[in-house]
Amino acid sequence: AQRVTQPEKLLSVFKGAPVELKCNYSYSGSPELFWYVQYSRQRLQLLLRHISRESIKGFTADLNKGETSFHLKKPFAQEEDSAMYYCALAQTGANNLFFGTGTRLTVIP
Amino acid sequence: KAGVTQTPRYLIKTRGQQVTLSCSPISGHRSVSWYQQTPGQGLQFLFEYFSETQRNKGNFPGRFSGRQFSNSRSEMNVSTLELGDSALYLCASSLAEALEQYFGPGTRLTVT
């Protein structure tokens, strides 16, 4: 069975400080991993996916298969980064996203 | 391009009733997935439809069912409603497997 774990429910950082949101997964196959974000009063939207290896809004995430992790990082947090962040896993070739419980990030001005 | 739309946005039902929720995907998207979001369980995958066929199913009882029409619009039905079915039901559409899913605003179902 697949499982996604986000150990921090809440995370607060000061503006300009580095931020790391942790995500660990368990899955016997080759997972597709994603970070989704939900800003206040907006829809859930894709932030980035591991296969594209691109940086969105300054965020990056590296898949570490040895540690089964997909942590989200940004070197300098901005106030507009305050949001709910969800790590998600899809089974190989499927559209069935399994979400972690989410981390609410607050960037303190 | 218009986003994913869901109707109705809010719904109040009584235990034992049934309910049908509707989702219109982004034009050209043939995959529609449904999720249930609750404070206790978080976001949970219900099922996915592609070209009118259920392709994946989550771990929900048979009271939860769905279908997809030839225009890719999808409906989700919950029969014999229970208090625990109170949740935000999200629909998402995608062009293909494991690509970006675009989420709708959700339907807030309250069961009393």
Which keywords apply here?
heterodimer; A: 109 residues; mainly beta; six-stranded mixed β-sheet; three-stranded antiparallel β-sheet; globular; B: 112 residues; four-stranded antiparallel β-sheet; 11 strands; 0% helix
User: How would you characterize the largest beta sheet of chain A?
Assistant: 6 strands, mixed
Which pair of chains forms the biggest interface, and how many residues does each contribute?
A-B, 22 and 24 residues
**Based on DSSP secondary structure assignment, what is the total number of beta strands of chain B?**
11
> Span from first to last CA of chain A?
41 Å
- Number of distinct helices of chain B: 0
Poorly predicted runs of chain A: none
Structure characterization notes:
Chain A contains no helices and eleven strands. Chain A is mostly beta strands and 109 residues long. In chain A, strands 2, 5, 6, 9, 10 and 11 form a six-stranded mixed beta sheet that branches. Chain A has a three-stranded antiparallel beta sheet with strand order 3-8-7, with no helix packed on it. Chain A is globular. The termini of chain A are far apart. With 112 residues, chain B is mostly beta strands. Chain B is 0% helix and 54% strand. Chain B is built from no helices and eleven strands. In chain B, the strands form two sheets. In chain B, strands 2, 4, 5, 6, 9, 10 and 11 form a seven-stranded mixed beta sheet that branches. Chain B is globular. The termini of chain B are far apart. The model of chain B has no long low-confidence stretch (mean pLDDT 94). Chains A and B meet through strand 6, strand 9 and strand 10 of A and strand 4, strand 5, strand 9 and strand 10 of B.
